[in-house]
Amino acid sequence: MTEGVPRYTAREAIGLVTSGFTELPGPASPVHVYPAEPAAPAAPAREYGPDGPLSWQGYDASHARAAARTGEEESVVCGTATVGGTATVLISFEFGFLGGSLGERTGDRLEAAYAYAREHRLPVVSLVATGGSRMQEGMRALVQLQRVARQSTLTREAGLPQIAVLRDPTTGGGWATLGAGADVVLALPGAQVGFAGSRVRPPDADPAAYTAEAQLAAGAVDAVVPPAELPGLLGLWLQLLSHPSAEPVPPPPALADTDLPATGWEAVGNARSPQRPRATAYLDACLTRRAAISGDRCGGKDDGMLCGFGVLEDGKDGGRTVAYAAQTGTATRPAGYRTAARLIRLADRLRIPVLTLVDTPGAANDAEAERQGAGAAIADVFGAVAAARTPLTTLLIGEGGSGGALALAAPDNTWATPDSYFSVIAPELAAAILKRPPEEVRATADQLRIRPQDLVDLGVVRGIVEPSKSPS
Q1: Whole-prediction pTM value?
Q2: pLDDT tens digit string along 172-190?
Q3: pLDDT digit string (tens) for 215-253?
Q4: 59: exposed, middle or buried (C-beta count within 10 Å: 0-12, 13-18, 19+)?
Q5: Using an 8 Å Cβ cutoff, are 241 and 161 in contact?
Q6: Is residue 145 classed as helix, strand or coil in its secondary structure?
Q7: Is the peptide bond before 35 cis (omega within 30 degrees of 0)?
Q8: Strand ranges inside 94-235, DSSP E
């Protein structure tokens, strides 16, 4: 156990997030093993002699002792509950039962819980605490990961959200399926989180790398949440992800009362002004009850790309959920683009409209950005936007620097504020490429036709938003 980190039982973990829980009945007999397709006939139930599929001496006795010690029949408890006002299927691991390990009976229970969620159109919340697959069942245990992955995929295809809460410890195949495979990943402070458990890591491994905090820094976890805050945040996520909408987001009004620029260089100056409202101000103005996702799930995060979900107060049933991906005025890094692509695909799958806020001088182009796959990351966002079936709305709120900005722009539904510009390349760089002296940068800005009104004439943006009018 990590020193000072509480290790909750399955039912204590359930009690952290809900006061009402109804356990689902366990499967009457073992469910067939993946990879049979849904339409295919089920394989016959497997029957084993003493001590399981490997005849592992003493396994039956260990199983019986675990049941007596914990009061549970298996390493997972599955049921239904209302969390923050949203009905959900709840899966909670009992680490005291053979280290929360996955065996065939665990797979049976997980498969049944996911099937119930799809049948009743409920989200799935997994409170994970596991050491991985059960050694005493050998490969029969390991292939349960394929069953879990398939159930998660079917649930994803059904348009139902999946949220994981990582407890101490979350390692092995449980982390690589139920944990890391969830749409949103929350973790309790100090929890061990990693594919390698504490007894199988390299002897010189830094234990701090296998923590919830380290996974947050690496972009694999969305938030580390103290237990007292978990019910509220989990309830908020369930509410946000469970309310689809077919209506596009209206472009937010401008926050600054800025006149349209007379020249291209004036447009550049307006967009680069330190006083210009930034993404956080726009999100605060148009969305309430926000919850952020963090990280690209590939080892990185970019604080210059804000992504998440919030409530648009539009007077319709208390508001509706909107997804957002917002640049903050910095050069966007590859992790930022991958996070935005992840956000757009999740919103598309859950049928939630997306608002993107474009504000960047361009994509980061340093050597480290190239090593991190800048081109592929930008291509990923272009692809996510192009494939999205949910409505996308874009507001250009500042600098629109080349393809690094255009990647987030919704085709045919991009708008601009008066204090913004969009350009194929920054005027200074355009002049340098054309071998023009510095004094010709201003004239180059005019030639590029980058003012908001130019963008309307060119058909690049639909219109220019004005400041909201205060009621008289």
Answers
A1: 0.92
A2: 899 999 999 999 999 999 9
A3: 999 999 999 999 999 999 999 999 999 999 999 999 999
A4: buried
A5: yes
A6: helix
A7: yes
A8: 124-130, 162-171, 184-187, 193-194, 223-224
